UniProtKB/TrEMBL annotation:
This is Glycine zipper family protein. Residues 1-20 form the signal peptide. Keywords: Signal. It comes from the Bacteria.
Length: 154
């Protein structure tokens, strides 16, 4: 029984490391969510991970720049829209010109955000395709005259 548990533990540990470097993408509202080994990756983590692949690194750096610009314009625009709305809710005289300028800044942020998502997606696809993913594994339960066993083929 101890040998079986040890074998299964070894097999699962080995399988965990087989695809350890691949980055998974999941489509979410407004872009993608990136994970590696079940851990959520931020943009700086993606940049650090892709340093070994120059083409993917260039794309992810471009995505990081676009993401920064989108955050600046979007944050400033959100503030300029939110301030007059808060003033109006509070009963004051709102300056709707600020809200218009803020809406314009938000509109400027959208193409930057879209470009960041596009470049990051391409970088992750390029990075994953460059990994050596030729190793695969297969589980089989084998029974013969000597008993039942588990076969793992790589």
């Amino acid at each position: 029984m101890k040998k079986t548990i040890l074998t299964l533990t070894f097999a699962l540990t080995t399988l965990t490391f087989c695809n350890a470097q691949q980055i998974e993408m999941e489509k979410v509202f407004g872009g993608y969510k990136y994970t590696q080994n079940g851990t959520l990756m931020k943009m700086k983590d993606l940049v650090k991970t892709m340093e070994s692949n120059q083409q993917a690194f260039d794309l992810i750096k471009k995505a990081q720049s676009n993401n920064t610009m989108a955050s600046i314009f979007g944050g400033a625009g959100g503030f300029l829209v939110g301030w007059p709305i808060g003033t109006a809710i509070g009963g004051g005289d709102a300056n709707w010109t600020l809200a218009g300028v803020g809406a314009g800044l938000i509109a400027i942020a959208i193409p930057f955000s879209s470009g960041a998502n596009k470049n990051a997606k391409q970088a992750v696809e390029l990075y994953n395709s460059s990994l050596n993913l030729t190793s695969y594994y297969e589980f089989k339960i084998i029974g013969n005259g000597n008993g039942i066993g588990l076969s793992i083929n790589f």
